Automatic annotation (TrEMBL):
This is Transposase. It comes from the Bacteria. It comes from Xaviernesmea oryzae. The keyword rRNA-binding does not apply. Gene3D superfamilies: Homeodomain-like, Ribonuclease H-like superfamily/Ribonuclease H. Belongs to the transposase IS21/IS408/IS1162 family. Residues 124-263 form the Integrase catalytic domain.
């Protein structure tokens, strides 16, 4: 099944970077048929219903396999077992699943173990149309005589510093999508990259470094606008310092003193 993230990559490589189908196949390791299917459609997700759901075998054996992989990693290169040997040892203990399941799990395990922990920095210079920063702020206003907290969406173009601001009652995903749609309409188009913090409406899981598991619907929005999402390192607000400065500026210039509205 094509994952949303792969569809986003295919669309961006073709429509933003202008790469050929052959080049996309080579870079992503997928077939021409898959690439053509994505490019011939405007869909940002393809659904596939299994006639029979697979029965996972690894589940209760994960801890055991983790221990075996960790012990094997600690050995010298000459003493390390091949993955097929580890699989056979796991079978001897009672595991009934297949080798491919163990191989896929071991590959993911090794990738996570080998992730580089060095800090990554977002460049301070941006070309026109290259990137924007997005953030929320909470502001207090008076609506029909009642003190209320509103959620304000902020979009900031990194090159021109042009801003877009809109207030909402909540920070739901629908509000996120609406803010992007209205901002891009106001600004005259979308940039190629969007810089975000790790808000729950966009990021489901934070891994080491810049690796993220993004929300499926959020990735569909990015695919629609051909945006590459970039999530900041936790506790590194300077990576989207422009929009955070905008939050302070708008709060000081617009929401102070406290604004009053009838509705």
């Amino acid at each position: 099944m094509l994952v949303v993230e792969t569809i986003l990559k295919i669309r961006r490589l073709s429509r933003v970077q202008g790469k050929s189908i052959k080049a996309i196949c080579r870079e992503l390791g997928i077939s021409r048929k898959v690439v053509r299917k994505v490019l011939r459609s405007d869909e940002t997700e393809f659904k596939y219903e299994r006639t029979r759901q697979p029965q996972p075998k690894l589940g209760p054996w994960r801890d055991q396999l983790d221990g075996m992989l960790l012990a094997n990693e600690a050995k010298s290169s000459r003493e390390r077992l091949t993955l097929i040997r580890i699989f056979e040892d796991l079978r001897d203990l009672g595991y009934e699943g297949g080798y491919d399941t163990v191989r896929r799990y071991a590959r993911t395990w090794a990738k996570e173990r080998g992730s580089v922990t060095a800090e990554a920095y977002v460049p301070l210079y941006y070309a026109p149309g290259e990137a924007y920063q997005f953030d929320w702020s909470h502001e207090i206003v008076v609506l029909n005589g009642v003190t209320t907290t509103v959620k304000v969406a902020h979009v900031r173009l990194c090159h021109s510093r042009m801003m877009y601001v809109r207030a909402y009652p909540r920070e739901t995903q629908e509000m996120v999508f609406d803010a992007h749609d209205r901002a891009f309409a106001f600004l005259g188009g979308a940039c190629t990259r969007g810089i975000y913090d790790n808000m729950k409406t966009a990021v489901e899981t934070v891994f080491v470094g810049k690796e993220r598991q993004y929300n499926r619907r959020f990735l569909q929005m990015c695919s629609h606008y051909l945006i590459e999402p970039v999530a900041c390192t936790p506790a590194s607000g300077w990576e989207k310092g422009q929009v955070e400065n905008q939050v302070n500026l708008v709060r000081e210039r617009f929401f102070t003193p406290r604004l009053r509205f009838k509705s």
